[in-house]
């Protein structure tokens, strides 16, 4: 197949030379007429003065990596406050909210665990259900020139996260549905108590609600050897001991290890929505999500027929 032609007006101006000793990244270039337009340049999106991810090996980045690893080990959540500039976060939130008419609407009672195929008795931690209710904008619904996608595809971010997690390999997902997504929660929406099926989640908060929408979690409440069902059941019953509650702010980049950490998003209150972008990576190349999960998403799309 032939490549599409590029008109003279579409061609980029020659980029400025990169700083000595640093690899050139094309997304650091300025936009038309020497200035960024529509957040099409990384310095317009990320506060590179605080977070110079394009300078791997610098003292600031090495310090961030040390801090992040130590924080994740103890707390399971590592946040980079103000990573995304306020104007860029607001732009991306509005872009996502404009896609709500085509978004999935999740509304279901779910258990906190991935199914193990066993029949657990009523009242057991593995059988208790929790309400999840929110909109989800899928990868193919986010435009290719979106600054949220530009952020997700920025190579220094991927490399920073790889080094933070200590992975030898680390690839962006190729799933057309779930590689890049966004969750939008309005008044009364929530993401109920659960454990994640993967070991780490990367997110960026684009908009905060007026009230509620707090990220609540019990760090490392279980291990590979001990499910600690008694403590999990107590958490479901309202136990507060050991609970941590974070009001994640717009612009924060968050790294969260939720496979052993019970967590939820408390109900949103008010007319202002909570908007969060989610970035999917994997240690294996070419990953896609399973068809049963994708089929469930299709049933939640506007206009889809639902059973019953």
UniProtKB/TrEMBL annotation:
The Fe2OG dioxygenase domain, residue ranges: 175-285
Region described as Disordered: spans on this chain: 1-24
Superkingdom as given in the UniProt entry: Bacteria
InterPro entries: BesD/HalB-like, Oxoglu/Fe-dep_dioxygenase_dom
Protein name: Fe2OG dioxygenase domain-containing protein
Signal peptide: none
UniProt record similarity statement: Belongs to the iron/ascorbate-dependent oxidoreductase family.
Keyword annotations of the record: Iron, Metal-binding, Oxidoreductase
GO molecular function, one term: oxidoreductase activity
Any one Pfam family match given in the protein's UniProt record, by short name: HalD
Keyword Transferase set for record: no
The keyword Metal-binding belongs to this UniProt entry's keyword annotation: yes
